[in-house]
Automatic annotation (TrEMBL):
The keyword tRNA-binding does not apply. It comes from Anser brachyrhynchus. Belongs to the SEC6 family. One of its GO terms (molecular function) is SNARE binding. This is Exocyst complex component 3.
Amino acid sequence: MEETDREAVATAVQRVAGMLQRPDQLDKVEQYRRREARKKASVEARLKAAIQSQLDGVRTGLSQLHNALNDVKDIQQSLIDVNKDWRQSINTIENLKDVKDAVVQHSQLAAAVENLKNIFSVPEIVRETQDLIERGELLQAHRKLMDLECSRDNLMYEQYRMDSKNTHDMNLIHTYFGDMQKLSEELAKQLWMVVQRSLVTVRRDPTLLVSVVRIIEREEKIDRRMLDRKKQTGFIPPGRPKKWKEKMFNILERTVSTRIEGTQADTRESDKMWLVRHLEIIRKYVLDDLLVAKTLLDQCFPPHYDIFKRLLSMYHQALSTRMQELAAEDLEANEIVSLLTWVLNTYKSTEMMGNSELSPEVDVNSLNLLISQDVVDQLLSKYMSTLTSNIIGWLRKALETDKKDWVKETEPEADQDGYYQTTLPAIVFQMFEQNLQVAAQISEDLKTKVLLLCLQQMNSFLTRYKDEAQLYKEEHLKNRQYPQCYVQYMIAVINNCQTFKESIISLKRKYLKVELEDTLSSSHASMDAILDIIAKEGCSSLLDEVFMDLETHLNELMTKKWLMGSNAVGTICVTVEDYFNDFAKIKKPYKKTMTVEAHRRVVVEYIRAIMLKRISFKNAEERKEGAEKMIKEAEQFRFLFKKLAAGSGEDTEGLCDIIEAIAEVIKLTDPSLLYLEVSTLVSKYPDIRDDHIAALLTVRGDASRDMKQTIIETLDQGPSQPNPNYVPIFKEITVPTLTVPKLLK
């Protein structure tokens, strides 16, 4: 207390010091005193009220404790009295045992009397029930069966209550009602037959199906009642619970599985399209069944059965099982495609589960895959492997078939524009198209893989195609009379190259995404290069054919016979033009290439004839005559190739100018100007070598050895300014060394 008083005094001092800090506050001392007095009175009043409240609570608690003590004493006395009365009544209870037994016996006898009529009429009721079942009156039959079961169950229950260990009497009752169990089984068979045919029955006689469902519902209620009684008494009649609802769903599940499995009517041996037919039948059956289940069957079952969703789940599971069985078989490539297309696309399409009449109950997005992704990947891998082998085989067979056409005695077919062609490109790309269309039905990814595979195999195929075209040429050279239509079929081979190019571009544009084009650029370039080589070699072989026929006439050029008036060049032009009537069947741009190459080779052969020095002019008159003939023949060539190149945009002037330039050198009458004329020729055509100049001067016939050497040495020292657009031609022409003396510088 002293400590508390000191703390209070210290606090008061602090408060007073806080109030009286300035001299003018002394005037308010009385005001401060009254305010503090009011606060003190208020605190004292609250303190008194709190203490009074606590005292009232304590007083009430003591009063309640006193009352409770009195109540406990009263209860204790009552328990003593009850115990005394119970001990006094034990003997009385034992004396009532006989009464208890009599009550139990009375209850059993009452049950027996109550069921007496049914007990005596059991055989008759059994016969009536059997007749009702046979007549299909299932509801009435079940009603009588329930009465029989109720009588048996009541008797057995009373026997169980009286003496649960008396199995003899229980067996006696069970035996007496033995035919009833057979009736129950017979009725169940009828029910399951209706359940199995529920999708048919609901269309023809929905009342029968409703009756079956009502019977099953009755049995479910009885099962629940019997199970509840078992919990209370431990007794349950024989054959309970029947679980007919569970059995009904099991029957439906087996029926669905059997229906799915039973749709396979054919095998691979009897029908190549067996799987397509099988899957289509499944699709039709499942869609029809689910539509019936939604529109009709759902109305025959209680809502809590959720029959449509249960059936949907059963069909999905049965389909999954069947698809896995099919996937495990040794399927061919087309069968794998059919299966995957059906599983990945058809199943969830509007033709089946996505049908508008099934929504919203069927959500295709919530349906799982019928087969796992691993199985899908395995099938795709097998398909790609099989397809690779098939494509290689198909391409090989197509090429062999095309090769057989090459030796026919009839010309190849022409397209709508008149260009020769064979069926090879159409066959190859029709095969590619078919496989790509099939792959596109499965997935975009598979379509891309198949396209890559096709182009990869196309690359290898074109290499074989090139080799076969070369062998075709070599075989023809052994006997130029065979094959009879060699030229026409070689033209067709060349045209096929252009068709292949166009088809590859079309295939990529149609089936390849733009963002993936870069991945195939190198492959495409490789194929284009091979096709260009095939076409180039084909054109070359055709020109070889032309120049083999021209060989005799080319050998006449720049000879005495030629100078005397031979018409070799006229024959050459006629022959070339005749061949080019066939070459007109070559597609652009190969036709243009062919014309340019023919023009170049004719000029080369003409110049080669000059360089062979078959003639050496004796005088100026012969030189003039020969030169004018050369100029005239150059003009003939120019006219011919201008005609052949009409519309192609080819420059036909430059090559023939070389012949005219050489003719000017030969025609020159003043030998002192020979160096100037030759230097002009060399400046125009800088690939002319010394031996070419020597051969040309030899043909003139008036140049001495020293003059030749002087001209050559002087030209070697002079600057060379070649035309950048000039394509060298003299480098292909060799001068025979046996007839030309070696000129030493």
